[in-house]
Design brief:
Layout lengths: L7 H6 L2 E3 L2 E4 L6 E6 L4 H6 L8 E5 L2 H9 L6 H12 L3 H17 L3 E3 L1
Antiparallel strand pairs: 1-5, 2-3, 3-4
Helix pairs in contact: 3-4, 4-5
Length: 115
Amino acid sequence: MPEKMKTYGDILRCVPRRSFDFEIDPETKRVIVLRPKYVSKIGRTIMMPLLKKKNFRIKLDELGSHVWQNCDGRNSVEKIVAVLEKTFGEKQEQLMERSVKFIMELEKQKFIVLQ
């Protein structure tokens, strides 16, 4: 996907796919993203064996958890926003803006890939 997208329309047609594993917190039912501390081949080979914990654990809020779970490589951003609208009952414009900004940040930080 081009690095600089100009319109929501471009992003809404994209299909996000997660780059990292995740867990569901059994108490809160929210997502915890497991981001490896080292993603380079050299870091994984040299440093990972020395670490007690191999991943950063990033806890998402309720909205972020729903977005993350739907970034499965099958749902377009537009479809994800429609699911969120049904789940949260907010106005689509608000959800669209929040979701698109969140998805753009996930891509920027390489948590997802937009296809």
